Amino acid sequence: MSQPHVRLGFALVVTAAVFFGINAGVTRIPMEAGLPTSTYTTIRVTFAFLTFLVLAVAFDRSALRPPRGRDLLLIVALGVVGVAFVQWTYNVAIMRLPIGVALLLEYLAPVLVVLWVRFVRREPVHPRVWPAIGLALVGLALVGRVWDGLSLDGIGVLVALAAAVCFAAYFLIGEELTATSAEPLTALRTVVWSFGVGAIVMNLLGGWEGSSALAHDASMLGRLSEFTIPAWAAMVFVVVCGTVLPFFLYLASLRHLSSSKASVTAMLEPVVAVIVGWLWFSETLDLLQTIGVLAVVSGIVLAQTARHVPAEELPPPL
Questions:
Q1: Where are the transmembrane segments (predicted)?
Q2: d(Cα 290, Cα 142) in Å, to the nearest integer?
Q3: Which residues of 232-256 are buried (b: 16+ CB within 10 A; e: fewer)?
Q4: Quick one: three-class SS letters along 122-148?
């Protein structure tokens, strides 16, 4: 890959992670207004699909062409595992575990991605990626203050680990569809069909119970608690800026970055969420958490320095 394309891929992932991190704060508005978690996920996925559908009709109608054969199977897998289940498992995990522990377990995903690439695909991985992941995970543990949740819910841990598997699958399947396939799908075509599958799954599992909560005004919470907005307006932000934009950017980045580097860079998301919590909700950000933020960023930078490496420096294929 040329250097400008790699930089573009890195910029796309960072932008997606920032939007996801901000969305963690905005999500609290409709949830605090009384919107049930399962309904929240159903609305989020369904309206994201409808938005992608409108974009396809307006800008690229070729994205409406159904994938076939192996690509269709991968799209179904991406929709079920990488779209519907990744959000459902995450929402269940944060209800049963401290948020820091849930995020740490979910962000084992980059480790799973690298393990898959190295030992299943049997592709060489630069040794520098391993300490980068380790540094980022240690930083994430500090950011999430995981020691505050030593008494853990067993089901919550299993669901959080399932979220890690689903998140890893999103990167690996997305890479297969948009970058390494014999006839790669465009990012728009991929999200249209995968979110269509995800919307069907969530409408079957989640339903729309309690959606009337979106008709009421809701507090903006935290430092902005004196202001109110319609709960549906916050949900529009969640759909457009917290779902459509970042999910599309993640898939688009996989044309320029490997799934292993993209997934490590995505670990910036919980760091942004903690900073949002500090700025918006007056949550504490102590010295250890600050060190953790720096450690995560350092791990991401270290992973990115392994972009252009001579072949002789890589371990041999398995």
A1: 40-59, 71-90, 96-117, 129-147, 153-173, 185-208, 228-252, 264-281
A2: 8
A3: bebbbbbbeebbbbbbbbbbbbbbb
A4: CCCCCCCHHHHHHHHHHHHHHHCCHHH
Residue 180 has which token pair? Answer: 């390494």
Amino acid at 176: E
What does the alpha-carbon distance between residue 23 and residue 37 come to, in Å, rounded to a whole number? 15
Tokens at 164, concatenated: 């890690």
Q: How many CB atoms lie within 10 A of CB 276?
A: 19
Band the pLDDT of 181: cuts 50, 70, 90.
Answer: low
Q: One-letter amino acid identity for 108?
A: L
CA quadruple 255, 258, 261, 262: dihedral, nearest 10: 40
Match 């249209």 to its residue by tokens.
192
DSSP line for 176-214: IIIIISSSPPPHHHHHHHHHHHHHHHHHHHT--TTGGGG
Residue with tokens 């669901």: 159
Domain ranges of the chain: 3-313
**Other C-beta atoms lying within 10 Å of the C-beta of residue 125:** 20
Provide the b/e sequence for 147-182 (b: ≥16 CB within 10 Å).
eebeebbeebbebbbbbbbbbbbbbbbbbbbbbeee
Q: Which phi and psi angles does 82 have, rounded to 5°?
A: -85, -15
Dist CA 75 CA 192 (whole Å): 10
